[in-house]
Every structure is written in C-alpha cells, then in structure tokens.
C-alpha cells in the first residue's frame, strides 16, 4: 500500500489513488465519476476531503458510488481517516439549499463490522430488493415508514450480511451512535 503524501490537493495522490481504483472499476466509469472530483488528504490529521464540481453531482454520487468509494478509500489509506464532502459552489442545490448528503459531511473509513459487509456487496434479487432498500433507509437515518424494522428468513438468506451492512453504515455516518444486535426466540 503506497504511503500518501502529508497533504495533497490532488496531483500525485489522485493519480495513485486512481491507479488503485482502476483495479476495481472500468476506465470509462472513472472518467465519469472520479476525474471530476478534487481530492485533498492530510495524513497528520487523517482527513480526506472530497470536493464535488456541484451539488447535483454530489447527489448522484451519494446514490451511485459513495459506498464503493468509501470502502476503497479505507482500503487504500487504512483505518481512522475521516472523509469530508463538500461542493465547489457551496449551497448550490435547488432553491439555494444544500442537499442533505452534503449536510452530513463526515464519514469514517472504518468498517467496524467487517469491510465485506456493505450494501454494495449484498447480493440483491427480486425477493430481497424491498428489504435491502428499507435497510438502507434505516441505516442512513432517513424517515422510515416501517418501524420497527425486523429481519427474518431462513439460514443463508443474508440476514447477518444485511444487519452488518446497516451497522457499518450507522457506525461510519453517525459518530457516537450505539448499536445493539438482538434475536427473538
């Protein structure tokens, strides 16, 4: 694993990180979503800042590649880094408001419940699409229509993976949050 420079506004670090990502992501995808980003890493403070070209790009990034990106940052830089997200133009969302994703600007790169347990690595199909979408809503702290959220099913159906993905998301995006795993009966 290459050692990142103490502080970089892009340049060498961005090129090296892009090379790392190229092992997991096609070139045309990197040109589309990675190249427009401005990246700054401070090794002493263990911070990693991502600056989006505009808020609409940030909104797309959140739903499309955020989880993959954060996992790769964690693998590349190691544990303990905090990601900060911002838009180049500040509050340039609709009606001058900041999109919700940019309001929650920090995220740990750690995956305390295992980096293999993410929503992105959960194998989704027609039968589990609804529980997956609902689990993502719950984990990201959005208003949930189905409360409490119960996970049940036969052995091997992905219950543990889904719960650990939720726990990883909560732990990374809600600093100081407490998590409890329990079972009924």
Describe the fold and architecture.
This protein is an alpha+beta fold. It has 2 domains: 1-110, GMP Synthetase, Chain A, domain 3, CATH 3.30.300; 112-180, no CATH class. Helix content is 38%, strand content 12%. The chain has 7 helices and 5 strands. It has helices at 11-21, 27-34, 55-64, 66-77, 100-103, 129-139, 159-173; strands spanning 7-8, 38-42, 47-52, 82-87, 106-108. A hairpin with a 4-residue loop joins β2 (38-42) and β3. The longest helix is centred in the C-terminal third of the chain and has 15 residues, at 159-173. The N and C termini lie far apart (45 Å).
Give the helices and strands, then pairings.
Layout: E1 7-8, H1 11-21, H2 27-34, E2 38-42, E3 47-52, H3 55-64, H4 66-77, E4 82-87, H5 100-103, E5 106-108, H6 129-139, H7 159-173
Parallel strand pairs: 3-4
Antiparallel strand pairs: 1-2, 2-3, 4-5
Summarize the amount of helix as a percent range.
25-40%
Characterize the overall form.
Answer: globular
Low-confidence stretches: 1-8, 91-95
Specify the structural class: alpha+beta
């Amino acid at each position: 694993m290459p050692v990142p420079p103490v502080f970089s506004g892009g340049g060498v670090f961005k090129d090296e990180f892009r090379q790392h990502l190229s092992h997991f992501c096609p070139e045309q995808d990197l040109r589309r979503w990675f190249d427009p980003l401005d990246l700054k890493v401070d090794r002493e403070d263990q911070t990693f800042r991502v600056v989006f070209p505009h808020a609409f790009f940030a909104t797309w990034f959140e739903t499309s590649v955020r989880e993959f990106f954060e996992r790769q940052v964690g693998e590349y830089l190691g544990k303990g880094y905090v990601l900060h997200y911002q838009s180049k133009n500040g509050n340039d969302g609709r009606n001058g408001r900041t999109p919700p994703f940019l309001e929650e600007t920090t995220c740990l790169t750690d995956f305390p419940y295992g980096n293999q347990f993410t929503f992105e690595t959960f194998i989704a199909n027609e039968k589990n699409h609804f529980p997956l979408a609902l689990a993502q809503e719950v984990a990201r702290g959005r208003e949930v229509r189905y409360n409490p959220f119960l996970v049940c099913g036969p052995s091997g159906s992905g219950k543990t993976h889904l719960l650990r993905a939720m726990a990883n998301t909560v732990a990374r995006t809600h600093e100081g949050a407490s998590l409890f795993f329990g079972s009924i009966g």
